[in-house]
Amino acid sequence: MVSTDKNLVATIVDLYFGATDTILSMLTWMILLFTNFPDKQRKFHEEIESVVGTNRRCTLSNRPKMPYTEAVAAETLRFGTALQGISHRAMQDTQFKGFAVKKETLIMPNFYWICFNLKVWADPDIFRPERFLDPSTGWFKRSDNLLPFSTGRRACIGETPARYTLLLFSTNLFQKFNIRLDTLGPQNGLKAVNSIVRFFVPSTATLVIK
After folding, report:
1. Domain count, the chain
2. Alpha carbon of 29 to those of 9, 52, 78, 193: distances in Å?
3. Which candidate in 29, 116, 125, 146 could, as Cys together with 80 as Cys, close a disulfide (CB 3.0–4.6 Å)?
């Protein structure tokens, strides 16, 4: 049994280092996606302006009135998903859908397959936040098929701060700036580097920030 103090330190380290790379990756993906889908960036900016305005910062209290913002965050988490989830360990011999899983087997879910499954998302390679909006009400709707923080008792403990950080950074950034690719420079696609987190492929593309 790990001591309470060691457990606390390990948890803090996981929160700090795990959240740093993942949130940076998600913000980078959002910027890149918005430059490739400028109509989505425009809708995002319009909602921020209509709810928050331009003279004050966006806070978490604004979140309930910003369904498109929630949808943008969810779609970014889907598109920039990690390749694999948090590892689990089989506690006993078991059978799952005809497969024998031995005790102590390391189990890692394939999040990339879940988030880019054609049967679930239809057009997974398209950045479309509207897939997370209720067509009849326009309000944000969660999807059981989106599991960027894993699921179950051993899900990522940083889900709440990660979601809040992504929302606050993105809304306050795009409240002030419009970001697009420089049409005179090379264009950037949406290819990713395969790692624990999907980082986009660096290029010489130039961003124009206004």
Report:
1. 1
2. 30, 24, 11, 12
3. 29
